[in-house]
Sequence to fold (1852 residues):
Amino acid sequence: MSYDLIIKNGTVVTASETYQGDLAIEKGKIAAIGRNFKSNGSKVVDAKGLYILPGGIDVHTHLDMPFGGTTTADDFVSGTTAAVCGGTTSIIDFAIQKKGEDLRSGLDVWHGKAQGKSAVDYSFHMIVTDLPEKRLKEMDKLVGEGVTTFKLFMAYPGVFMSDDATIFRALQRTGENGGMVCMHAENGGVIDVLVQKALAEGKTEPKYHALTRPMSAEAEATRRALALAEMAGVPIYIVHLSAGDAMEEVRRARERGVAAYAETCPQYLYLSYEDYEKPNFEGAKYVMSPPLRPRGNEERLWKGLTNNWLQVVSTDHCSFCFHGRGGKPGKELGRNDFSKIPNGAPGIETRMLLLWDAVQTKKLTPNRFVEITSAAPAKLFGLYPKKGTITPGADADLVLLDPKRKHTISAKTHHMNVDYNPYEGKTVQGTIWDVFLRGIKMVEKGKFVGRTTSGSFIKRKSR
Amino acid sequence: MSYDLIIKNGTVVTASETYQGDLAIEKGKIAAIGRNFKSNGSKVVDAKGLYILPGGIDVHTHLDMPFGGTTTADDFVSGTTAAVCGGTTSIIDFAIQKKGEDLRSGLDVWHGKAQGKSAVDYSFHMIVTDLPEKRLKEMDKLVGEGVTTFKLFMAYPGVFMSDDATIFRALQRTGENGGMVCMHAENGGVIDVLVQKALAEGKTEPKYHALTRPMSAEAEATRRALALAEMAGVPIYIVHLSAGDAMEEVRRARERGVAAYAETCPQYLYLSYEDYEKPNFEGAKYVMSPPLRPRGNEERLWKGLTNNWLQVVSTDHCSFCFHGRGGKPGKELGRNDFSKIPNGAPGIETRMLLLWDAVQTKKLTPNRFVEITSAAPAKLFGLYPKKGTITPGADADLVLLDPKRKHTISAKTHHMNVDYNPYEGKTVQGTIWDVFLRGIKMVEKGKFVGRTTSGSFIKRKSR
Amino acid sequence: MSYDLIIKNGTVVTASETYQGDLAIEKGKIAAIGRNFKSNGSKVVDAKGLYILPGGIDVHTHLDMPFGGTTTADDFVSGTTAAVCGGTTSIIDFAIQKKGEDLRSGLDVWHGKAQGKSAVDYSFHMIVTDLPEKRLKEMDKLVGEGVTTFKLFMAYPGVFMSDDATIFRALQRTGENGGMVCMHAENGGVIDVLVQKALAEGKTEPKYHALTRPMSAEAEATRRALALAEMAGVPIYIVHLSAGDAMEEVRRARERGVAAYAETCPQYLYLSYEDYEKPNFEGAKYVMSPPLRPRGNEERLWKGLTNNWLQVVSTDHCSFCFHGRGGKPGKELGRNDFSKIPNGAPGIETRMLLLWDAVQTKKLTPNRFVEITSAAPAKLFGLYPKKGTITPGADADLVLLDPKRKHTISAKTHHMNVDYNPYEGKTVQGTIWDVFLRGIKMVEKGKFVGRTTSGSFIKRKSR
Amino acid sequence: MSYDLIIKNGTVVTASETYQGDLAIEKGKIAAIGRNFKSNGSKVVDAKGLYILPGGIDVHTHLDMPFGGTTTADDFVSGTTAAVCGGTTSIIDFAIQKKGEDLRSGLDVWHGKAQGKSAVDYSFHMIVTDLPEKRLKEMDKLVGEGVTTFKLFMAYPGVFMSDDATIFRALQRTGENGGMVCMHAENGGVIDVLVQKALAEGKTEPKYHALTRPMSAEAEATRRALALAEMAGVPIYIVHLSAGDAMEEVRRARERGVAAYAETCPQYLYLSYEDYEKPNFEGAKYVMSPPLRPRGNEERLWKGLTNNWLQVVSTDHCSFCFHGRGGKPGKELGRNDFSKIPNGAPGIETRMLLLWDAVQTKKLTPNRFVEITSAAPAKLFGLYPKKGTITPGADADLVLLDPKRKHTISAKTHHMNVDYNPYEGKTVQGTIWDVFLRGIKMVEKGKFVGRTTSGSFIKRKSR
Fold:
């Protein structure tokens, strides 16, 4: 029998299995899994010595996003090129509702930013900033169009923050329409008081960004979000969880039966507060919300990943250059006032390798790696079984990873359009060797060989 | 040696001791404690067979308070008469700031309501409803005048509710002025959504008062209040805690080092949700906030009292007649809409005996009884060692309790100015026999023999 | 391409995946997984409407075992026939060391009992009853032969019980030889005192079996076993965990990093203490150790299965007739003395359907069903990836389950050689339709069509 | 009125009160408590600037005790002189049953050791080493004589260790006779295996004493002891608790309603494992069981004292000279084998000041200090209200402590008959100034002025 493509002799890894096998691909999908497949004229890739993994799914990216007087460094073209080079074949980006406008209009803007400009498949979450009762039905419509998730904020009063009654109404609505709320959980009221106090006292350096956003402010808001979901009787997803105490709240909620889920990000697993104290304003590179946490916290998160107290690792990729570039001001905006530093850091390209490194150090099993980077995101966000696994009928989104080859992370070589890398110089064990998107070769021997038009919008399923 | 009064042969109980002894009183204070005191012309009371307890301190009462189109049934005259007959010799009532006015004005109104009309010593907490930054310094002034505690609300949006930033600023201020915040911890935003929904669905009976105020709404707000206090680095006191899950949050906060305290009330220890389902609108008698909780919850609270996860039992006495009386509408206001039922229930007279009953059933030791009804409130609220114990120099506020004599609670015999009693017909083991306020006999053999002018304002100490 | 067998159109379920697919089988193993496989002369089975599951693995059975003056009702012939009819294709039975003899001799006896008499693949755990230091090296030898697990007892003083020093030495040894200890965790010392006391007081009915084996005795021993493993730095597996409090200890140990695992059994999930109070000595049918627990406990165990606080469900199949049969006395042995009732109950045939019923009621997902009945046992006990999953190269041990067809459990129809069934009359949703062992059809449309010689000894891998 | 003695103007501290007052003493007892007592011919001591505390009660001492080929350095004469100089006015020492002999005989030996040789009041616990069923009734008799507590061991197999069945029977018996079991909770079986292994590997230095007695061995045994008490339905008291994890078990047991109590000792609060690594065999000075724990553990114990997870601080005073003296070999016995080092350290004299130092550093309140050093021990061990407090009728056992004066601990100045002090050179804030035993001045301005015959045997009350 002849197939479009056969990948032979690799070690296939899914969320629960690890086995030697051949994969046959036809029309962009997995057609058969077996051993010793004959070529019969099919194109053949030899994966001997390589792991074959489901393509990574990054459910938290911000591309081409305006923020605080500038715009993110990466648009869909550069961001998704970096993604696929890093082994990620699907992303979910955030579309933003403008205050006073309808959800739909905001979504349309993002469709425009992405269409025909993406190297990976993509979908959107909808950021909700203005939700009077009359707009609740707009949520239903989006769910029907495959935009099934809505991000609300407990931080940024006056900008993004929703009050508890609004959040609660949104949660109740997802109980009816099958959508899900994603929550930025930090207590914005407290944080604003602390920020004003710090600035009034002349504390303007980057480290005060972290010192005015205490872990308790995150743990409190997380607990509150979970309680609201519990009272509404619906699932909830906590984004970019950074504090061990917040994780503890997720764990407790799950144990009492709440359908509570949370993601953390590589930066919270590898970096820490100390980075803010770097001289020469270098600390600004790490200004993101929530901030990096004191050393010791990261071990709690690793433990949470092992014990499934956390379910997903995404990136919260939101890149700003350190020095402005191409008319977009950078981190320097906040040189004299930490509260003006654009919030966010690049990471869309480094997630998979940073986590695979944890497989090498036995912190994660290969199966758990697949679960947190691909299978769980796919299942939680309505992409499964099209994405997130390697079974007959699934999209042939595949990463061939070479576990023997080392890779050194650097802004000099990365594909993200940003002038620094938070992990500059770090060497990890493992290299993203080949990447396929629906059977199309996008990366070959570590080089981008695809097109930035290959990605399609994915209409997601509701619960 | 001659004293004003000697009380002989009783069993003296304090928060840690139980012993046979004689008490000598001079100028309203304990002058000496011993055995076999000679009369030498002193007046003598024989307390043989009686327990001698420090006078009860009820730190949560609402007397002469306007609420929702009516006024509480008890003013200071009737309320404090009932208090002293029930073994309580000090209360802390709540003065209310009017929106847009200063704290001071609200306090003055309450001074006016109480002065010369109280049978027990009294102080005030200040209810804060409107706290822009400029008013923070008003708090300092009140602390200096002995009104050291400030109640804020996380419930009743648009009426009493403060947002998190305001609460946080108030907490920070108490860190500077030595005051303390008392918190009504229920998530008002969620509750309002649930109330509107219930009413829209035609659910108007009293039980919906409880069903729209879930335990989670209290647990969440409690957790939040504790987190705010923790971030401000100050103590906090949770009022009328009713839900076991809220208590669990207090316990956890205490274990991580927060100076967190909480009171519960007899109604949450003895009554339960089932009372709301009584026919003929009887359920309205139990409408209070937080509401009575499902059966099983009360055992958790008792366990909390035993293990010191709860520190105080107060009453939240806030009485409304079932049928209107004297121009004051009663519970009937809400016959067609549970949200219009005046919130509150009478209890100032029954607290001590209801809790002593738990001594009889071995749920509490006599010492723990004294601790939660008198010693702990005195220490937490700046009344100690003047109040709350029996040591040389303390005020001779004393209760002589007869443990052999039974007492049946009834609206027919109680001194509260209200036409029902939530514990109607309940017989407890123990009777408040004699009560002394600063050595003045107020109650003799269960009868009120004092005057409603004996009580004085107590200027409390700050931390 | 031609295969020995193709199973088409079923819904394949593994521990993490659910998908429509065809399976091709060659030489007893999974050769390929795909869709729309052409027959090309292969034998074809149509699985339309059926679930295709990895064959069940029951890691806790007692076949042909002498106990307390009798022998179990099922030997390998009847027991494994029942197993395969119930969807179980591999078992691990317990070989017993005789006191004073070497491990090897005991193992040989069990090899003799099983060889050529088993309808399913089988392996052994070694029950250790006598382990002076000199015998420790015998453990190493067994591990080398694929008998990698050793059961020790904290109960039955004077019969099976090992003291803590012995257990600790055995645990340490598994740290060197890659084996693992399986523990019967009940405090035998306490239980014996309670049994003697009960008998002395004339308490002889079956229910006293349960009343003299309190949950605390199991929780304590579990905690102790886990601590010994923790101090030895090795994994441990708790068998037949029945008490929620014992589970809590496993959970806590796992959270502090101990490689702790536990199985429970269907009887603890479905039955309860009340069964002991059945009249006419019927309670004896449920006499097993640990005993059935009070109602409410089973919900804790279900929660544990959901949250992975428990990893495996086995049967502890150990059947005795109620009335003696074939020269083997039955439960009647203890009619006048509960302590003489043979301990154990039948279950090898009913495990899979009882648990699938929980899939129907949404207590378990299909994937979790596979995990606890097959995948996790295979991984923990060195059978994976030969057993426990459906991937290329795995043994074609497959169960075709019809989810639409109901099944009623009854001693009249079951294949176990025992005159009662603890679940008599219970109807479950789902029927074991076809079963394949290494590609050999053993069960067809619910009827046994195989041979009791098809099963082979499986040499297990050590850690 | 005239009294034997009046102590004026001190700050009286009890477990719950702190107040300025005068104490009048008559016939060795507190006669009256007041203010401004007139002398009227009474002897007067001025306590201005001093704290007046209830005399310390040390419920865990080993005086004149044979152990491992030697005898403790302190007998009753030297030991109780040191005690009273350190502010302790009552002790409970351990009498030892000889194997094969009756309890009574062992008790008589200890009566002989103490009678007429004690500067403080004393009682005994009975160490039980051999408890067949027939001896259980001997326990009843001792309870009747005021020796109400029985110490059993889970450590030292072959010497002191009882098995679980024996312990359980003893616990059950105290449920009938009103006594209480005190438990040495370490898993002796595991420890012996580890000790043998260490010695076989040539590990002979003092530090291996600690490394072969892991915290888990204590936590496990503690959990087991608590479970046995729970199943017997009786209270239990854990002696010399050292490990935070063991404390956690006590806390959990208390929360589920077990009458569980535990003491720790100053050495576990102030010293740590590092002391074992001192050169020149100095580590031997700290060899005791349980051993000192790794740094960090002590903070958990302090937290436990604050939160009442621990109830008592005793000393486990068991002194051996470093160098032999007077025919008694010392720590040197184990120079080549840590397992031969006599177990124990001196502490009877330093407990009160070391803990008062924690009052100075705000770790403890003065009231909590009194509770853990005197009131709680008195209540738990049947000495209250004769001992443990300052109320009319109580023994006038009083310590006048000068909080302004510093004290430096040193073997050069201490009264214990031992050639080293574990706290050598440590300076604490506070000095034991005067001590009274039943009104008799034993210590004056820090000097011993009493007689070593003043102490009497105290017959203790049972529960």
The two ends of chain D are 38 Å apart (CA to CA). Chain D touches chain C at residues 157, 163-166, 168-169, 172, 187, 189-190, 192-194, 214, 216-217, 219-220, 223-224, 227-228, 230-231 (CB under 8 Å). The mean pLDDT of chain D is 97. Residues 56-367 of chain D form a domain with the TIM Barrel fold (CATH 3.20.20.140).
